[in-house]
From TrEMBL:
The chain holds residues 813 to 1015 of 1017 of the full protein. Homodimer. Trifunctional enzyme that catalyzes three distinct reactions as part of the 'de novo' inosine monophosphate biosynthetic pathway. It comes from Carassius auratus. This is Trifunctional purine biosynthetic protein adenosine-3. It comes from the Eukaryota. In the C-terminal section; belongs to the GART family. In the central section; belongs to the AIR synthase family.
Amino acid sequence: TKVAVLISGTGTNLQALMEQVKKPSSSAEIVVVISNRPGVMGLKRASMAGIQTRVVDHKLYGSRAEFDGTIDKVLEEFGVELVCLAGFMRILTGPFVRKWSGKMLNIHPSLLPSFKGVNAQKQALQAGVRVTGCTVHFVAEEVDAGAIVVQEAVPILVTDTEESLSERIREAEHRAFPAALELVASGGLKLRDDGRIVWNQSV
Ligand code: GRF
């Protein structure tokens, strides 16, 4: 399965996905990495791994639709079949999300549906929950609300700060995202038209 990874920054999730697809057992190949911001660390990681990169700078576009349209052109240029949003900090428009429905995954640093939106790690700390985690889900038009593919729970320690908790969640992300990528890329799991998850027992 030809995969595109969309990033906005550091790219530690990208790094985990690149390491996953190098395994002989992997059903996925990352064919392009797209960033909405130039010069970020994730672009260097991709180049070091010999993966083609593109920058589509959202500041250069007059509308979200035009930005998404350019992203879509790059995806078509590379024959992409599956999109992974890995720390991609842009909201995508309805038409784009609908086109890639069932073929686009996102990672969120909480156990959705709890703590949607930004600062999910901080929201969990402030809510006083003892367990949080990360979620890989199909991207739907409603933000952070698509069908869930993989989750991993993470304990919150009494000594935790936003930083220490975020680091522990990121370690879980680096296991959850590769697992979710393989499930979808191998056809083991897919999104049904009614928005429910279907497991392919025969795989
Ligand atoms: C992660 O915390 C992820 O949950 C969120 O953005 C961050 C991405 O980090 N979507 P990185 O760029 O993959 O290191």
